[in-house]
Task: inverse folding
């Protein structure tokens, strides 16, 4: 791998470039993005040069698509005519079914391997990029078939994943989307809903809160410009996740209300707290 072209030089694309450099990559990194983004990336030495899509695709060994999901799908429809045979196209999209399906239909001259680094920040843009963003984080891969992992350029890319501090997890696209609906998309919606509720309660004293509220609303700082495509391309799985979450909240609400012969919180609310505590402890044991 000598030339990497990053399409969408923002938080993830910029961080991937910085992580490669820190891990010892000495080749050329091309940026394909908006004028402000590539200018900022050049100023920070994140990329070596900026090129239009066609020129970058024709020169790259690895094409790393880190735009919003619909833009990735659109880009996949263009690249096949320009990409080098033997190159690898991968992506960093947060949902995979649409992207993998589009690649299966459109990409014939190069290898393709769907990807999703489970890393991010509330801030967006190349200015927020950092070399250690992927440290200790899973890097999800969604091959269309085992052959995608055996492509020579894919094997080279796979060697770089631990070198940038991440570790690979292989899933099919459908399992990926159903899983992240629960572990990523639902937490975002829960955080945004809580913050939106409190924003509407303007009569609340504004300084009466503790760290729990700050922690719980951290994700609400995220931009809908990123999340709109995620919700649009994973709506069925997210809908099921929301149904399950609402049902659990209803269980808690019912238990909290209590009855004449069963005081509030006993015993089902305690069981809920105990189950939640076990999961939270397990989560922290592996991160």
Result:
């Amino acid at each position: 791998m000598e030339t990497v072209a990053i399409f969408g030089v923002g938080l993830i694309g910029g961080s991937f470039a910085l992580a490669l450099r820190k891990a010892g990559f000495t080749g050329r990194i091309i940026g394909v993005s908006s004028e402000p983004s590539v200018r900022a990336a050049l100023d920070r030495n994140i990329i070596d040069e900026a090129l239009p899509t066609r020129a970058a695709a024709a020169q790259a060994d690895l094409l790393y698509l880190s735009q919003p999901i619909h833009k990735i799908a659109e880009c996949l429809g263009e690249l096949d005519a320009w990409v080098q045979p033997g190159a690898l196209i991968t992506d960093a999209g947060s949902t995979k079914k649409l992207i993998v399906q589009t690649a299966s239909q459109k990409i014939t001259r190069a290898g393709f391997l769907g990807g999703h680094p489970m890393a991010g920040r509330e801030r967006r843009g190349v200015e927020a990029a950092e070399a250690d963003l992927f440290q200790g984080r899973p890097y999800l891969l969604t091959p269309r078939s085992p052959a995608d992992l055996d492509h020579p350029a894919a094997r080279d890319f796979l060697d770089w994943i631990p070198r940038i501090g991440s570790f690979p997890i292989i899933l099919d696209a459908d399992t990926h989307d159903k899983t992240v609906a629960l572990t990523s998309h639902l937490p975002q919606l829960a955080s945004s809903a809580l913050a939106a509720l409190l924003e509407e309660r303007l009569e609340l004293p504004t300084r009466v809160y503790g760290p729990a509220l700050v922690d719980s609303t951290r994700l609400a700082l995220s931009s809908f410009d990123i999340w709109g495509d995620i919700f649009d391309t994973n709506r069925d799985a997210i809908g099921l996740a929301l149904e399950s979450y609402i049902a659990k909240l209803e269980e808690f609400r019912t238990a909290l209300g209590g009855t004449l012969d069963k005081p509030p919180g006993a015993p089902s609310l305690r069981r809920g707290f105990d189950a939640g505590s076990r999961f939270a402890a397990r989560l922290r044991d592996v991160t």
